[in-house]
Write a structure and sequence with these properties.
Length: about 270
């Protein structure tokens, strides 16, 4: 009798252990299925489950209380018509456009204000008369219209402005007190047109800014004498270039002594 009792106890313990392991495995498998398929059931209309349930359904029915495991009908989810797309908002208008040049001594304040600007040419990928004029002539017109550049190669070398090595000149602007805008040379004295860029946040108005900039450069600007220095990486050559009031010139020179003087800080970089 004692042996029978011990045998019954062992069988009961084994059964409880087996049930616990099955429950644990079922919970783990349900977690795996939910992770793979999610918990959403795609709409399929009213239907009764007549065939053998799948592994997921079997585990779900086994895991739920017995009172919740009869045949199941899935109610259809009503179709919802897609909403009409919102109309595209009209492009903002600027009205009067005011160009404020950033002076050489105002670079740090400009960079502190617009350090996170994402510079782009989007919105200005169309051509104007500005794009056909040799860059040296545009440089002299910029000087006549706005004054000295914000940054040049010699200013970088002398003052340690850690800017682009291969840019002859840079004009920085704040338009209407809030919109940053820059104009740079293309390939120094050997290019045509200018590189114009603005903040991505103002893409919608950059086209209007380019048109206004080009109109002012073509109708209001008067050439002024200037002297710049330029380093061409492709040619491995330094140049002195400028306008003397009569002729535009480009002359090869030895590397200036100040060209190797660099700032250790990257705070002067305009583009990230």
């Amino acid at each position: 009798m004692l042996l029978l009792a011990l045998g019954s106890t062992a069988q009961a313990q084994s059964a409880r252990l087996t049930e616990a392991l099955q429950l644990q495995r079922a919970k783990v498998r349900m977690g795996e299925i939910v992770g793979e398929m999610g918990i959403a059931i795609p709409p399929r209309g009213p239907a009764e489950i007549e065939t053998e349930p799948s592994e997921a359904a079997s585990l779900l029915f086994w895991w739920l209380p017995r009172s919740r495991t009869p045949r199941v009908a899935l109610d259809p989810i009503p179709l919802v018509a897609p909403a009409e797309p919102a109309p595209e908002p009209p492009a903002p208008t600027l009205g009067r456009i005011r160009w404020d040049r950033v002076g050489p001594g105002e670079q740090e304040a400009f960079l502190d204000r617009y350090r996170e600007a994402l510079w782009t040419v989007d919105g200005m990928r169309f051509f104007t008369a500005l794009d056909t004029i040799p860059t040296p002539k545009l440089r002299s017109r910029l000087f006549g219209l706005f004054g000295a550049p914000t940054r040049t190669a010699i200013a970088r070398g002398v003052n340690g402005f850690n800017g682009n090595d291969d840019v002859q000149f840079e004009y920085w602007f704040v338009v209407n007190d809030s919109i940053p805008f820059v104009a740079l040379d293309k390939d120094g004295p050997f290019g045509r047109g200018l590189v114009l860029a603005g903040d991505f946040a103002h893409t919608a108005v950059l086209g209007a800014l380019k048109r206004d900039f080009a109109e002012q450069m073509m109708t209001r600007a008067r050439p002024m004498p200037y002297v710049d220095y330029y380093h061409s990486r492709e040619r491995n050559q330094w140049y002195r270039t400028g306008y003397d009031g009569t002729d535009y010139y480009v002359r090869e020179i030895e590397r200036p002594r100040w060209a190797g003087r660099r700032s250790e800080s990257g705070k002067w970089y305009l583009f990230r």
